[in-house]
Specification:
- By secondary structure, the chain is of the alpha/beta class.
- The chain has three helices and ten strands, in the order βαβαβββαβββββ.
- The protein is globular.
- The N and C termini lie far apart (31 Å).
Length: 154
Amino acid sequence: MIRIGVVSDSHGAMELFEKAVNEMSDVSAIVHLGDCASDALEIARRTGREILTVNGNCDLFSHNPVFRTLDVEGKRIFITHGHREHVKTGLMRLFYRAEEENASLVLYGHTHIQRMDEIDNIMLLNPGAMKDGKYAVVQMDEGGIAHEFHKIGL
């Protein structure tokens, strides 16, 4: 079993971001889905945790990739901010991209809304905006994929 912490859209909310990382002490990895992905560098420095990042539409001068794929527990994860897949107008472009990547889980942000959708056995998870204290934890094992949504009090 592996647990992955997922944050997005931190937009400089360093105190909330640091609290979230501290709450995620039991996760194997932390992923930042963009929009102030540079916040992840500072939080990694403060906490000593490695944070995997992708760029969002606000990360114009960052050298992070725009998307990543990971293979975890026999499942492929497609990681993106979501702006290039136009997630604010629907999830079908994101779904088709996940199919192209042979992913069973997609992690995306951009809309600032916590949600989990499943389309044809592909799970699409948005942790919400870290700037609002929202994040998610995904648990993966041979039995499948589960998630928890969290919110830090402001």
